[in-house]
Amino acid sequence: MSVKSPTASLLPRRISSRNRWWRWGLLSSSAVPLLGAFVYGYGLPLGEGDCSFQQTYGFFGPGCGLTRSFVAIAQGDFLRAIQFNLFGPPLFLLFAWGFLQAALELGSRRSLPRRWNLFGFCQRYPVSFAGLAIAMLLYYAIRLLSAYGTVPVAVEASGLWQFIRVGAQQL
Question: What does pTM read for this prediction?
Fold first, then answer.
């Protein structure tokens, strides 16, 4: 009969082969936008009108501006990144977190503690992610209104509205 030590539950557990595939998926899906931001930021030019959503429907989509936001982050221009898309910096950090987690877990073959594990975070706080999705849709509606609609003069004159409007018009 073996007795477990009290510290055994504190040690990170080994990653199964099935979960290793999840980590490879997280690593590759996180690496693509991060590497793309640096490639576009320091070499490959961003073309105008490359968005297939905008070409098809005639107006920009909820994710429009994210690539330019990621490129601005890669170049160190955080104000411009927020102007292109308010959710660019948080999503960039989320991709970076996923990339680092997957790289660390694949390198050590052990999962990170639950509080640092992105998979555990998503499972523990599903309402937060639903709230984030709702906030993104509201922001999208505001951007559509700023680019194509009319608002009262008091709102139009505010600095925040002008900031949002300039970002929406650059798409």
Answer: 0.75
Residue 79 near residue 86, CB atoms below 8 Å? no
**Total structural domains in the chain?**
1
Alpha-carbon torsion angle 84, 90, 96, 102, nearest 10? -140
Alpha helices in the chain (DSSP H): 17-41, 52-57, 66-74, 78-84, 88-108, 118-124, 126-148, 153-156, 159-169
Q: Residue 47: phi, psi to the nearest 5?
A: -80, 160
Range of the domain at 74: 17-125
How far apart (Å, rounded) are the C-alpha atoms in residues 87 and 129? 13
Residues 28-56, buried b or exposed e (16+ Cβ, 10 A)? eebeebbeebeebbeeeeeeeeebeeeee
pLDDT in tens, 122-171: 667 778 878 888 998 998 888 888 777 777 777 777 888 788 777 777 76
DSSP three-state, residue 14: strand
Angle at Cα 104 formed by Cα 99 and Cα 109, nearest 5°? 125
CA distance 120 to 37: 27
